[in-house]
Amino acid sequence: MNDLTELKEYVAVHARGQRIADYSQLLDRISHDEGSGPGSWVGEWSGAARALERQGDDLAAVKHYAMARFPYVDGPARAEALERCVAAMDRWRTDQGLDIEPLEVELKEGRVRCWAGGLSSTDPKPLLLVMGGIVSVKEQWAPMLAHLRRLGMAGLIAELPGAGENGLRYDAESWRMVSGLLDAVADRADVSRTHATALSFSGHLALRCAVDDPRIRGVVTVGAPIGEFFTDPDWRRAIPRVTADTLAHMTGTTPDAIADGALEGWALTRDQLASLDIPVSYVASSRDEIIPSADLRLLREGVRRLEVAEFDDVHGAPHHVAEVQLWTTRALLRSRGVRGAQPALLGLALRGLGLRRRLAGARR
């Protein structure tokens, strides 16, 4: 059973990022994490989602169902919430007439379900790959696809192996999934110019893939593990229970195995990082309880073209959601070489918010 206090704490960054206005009041109604009845985690989030569906607000329902299955599917109640989340997303994109399509990719390791937008065999555009962390699903990010036309890009929203509808097992070779997804859309997107916005653990996946796959031309990430997270057992023994439990679920191991070294071979080396000749943009939190500060030092020592925004916050910078969203969007534009009004306006917006950050290692 999940630790309810931790669930409430760690769902906050996702609820804020999704702009779920009523999340605090909803959390106050939750008293346990068993089944789907009144007062339960799944029951209260799903009940709110069903009410939104009745009001015809499928997009808001998507967000609430995603929180209902948080942090991962551990039984029938959360499985139903995930199914309803996907169905609500499908209704929303259909009713809105959006250029968003479901995409199912069969890899040798298993099946990966994604959302895609802007794919065209006659007018292939550069690809933006978006992936969330270990506790998020693709439906949280899929609405971004409706806005990619402004960026002149096609888009692919995927999940980490073991998250949501991704049927793959999360392991040291999971970075190969990214290359497989690029292969799958190579006839409808210019994957030779792929940029990745990859949050938390998916940022590690994208960076590892970029070491071997030159089609990835830039990575923007928030709070990604790099090296010491994987090699320091003392650090891993102190990470939040929800993180250890979710990693154990995705990797098919146990929380004790996660602490004792099941992930040790996953660390990126200084040589691998030095081999990257692409822009890497990284949002760090100075009080991150999941990612050790040594990982940011390793990035600074190894990556040649690095830009860092550092916030006085915990993992994911939940108290700086607006700043992070603006900064990462501007970082994506700059990594693509976009100059002019768009990044300039984003910079003005950041200054208007009184951005509390320190830039380090920019374009070294």
Task: Please provide a written account of the structure.
- Helix 7 links the parallel strand 5 (190-199) and strand 6.
- This protein has helices spanning 4-17, 23-28, 41-54, 58-68, 76-95, 176-184, 201-212, 228-231, 233-237, 241-251, 255-260, 270-274, 293-302, 321-335, 341-352; strands spanning 100-107, 110-117, 126-131, 154-158, 190-199, 216-222, 280-285, 306-311, 359-360.
- It is α/β, with parallel strands linked by helices and 364 residues long.
- Helices cover 42% and strands 16% of the residues.
- The relative contact order is 0.09.
- Strands 1-2-4-3-5-6-7-8-9 form a 9-stranded mixed β-sheet, sandwiched between helices.
- Mean pLDDT is 91; it is low at 356-364.
- The longest helix has 20 residues, at 76-95.
- Helix 3 (41-54) runs antiparallel to helix 4 and helix 14 (321-335) runs antiparallel to helix 15 (341-352).
Distance between the termini: 46 Å
Largest sheet: 9 strands, mixed
Order of secondary-structure elements: HHHHHEEEEHEHEHHHHHEHEHHE
Structural class: alpha/beta
Helical coverage, percent range: 40-55%
Strand content: 15-25%
What's the count of strands?
9
Task: Please give the radius of gyration in angstroms.
Answer: 19 Å
Widest β-sheet, arrangement of strands = 1-2-4-3-5-6-7-8-9
Overall residue-averaged pLDDT value: 91
Number of helical segments?
15
- Unreliable spans: 356-364
State the shape.
globular
Oligomer classification = single chain
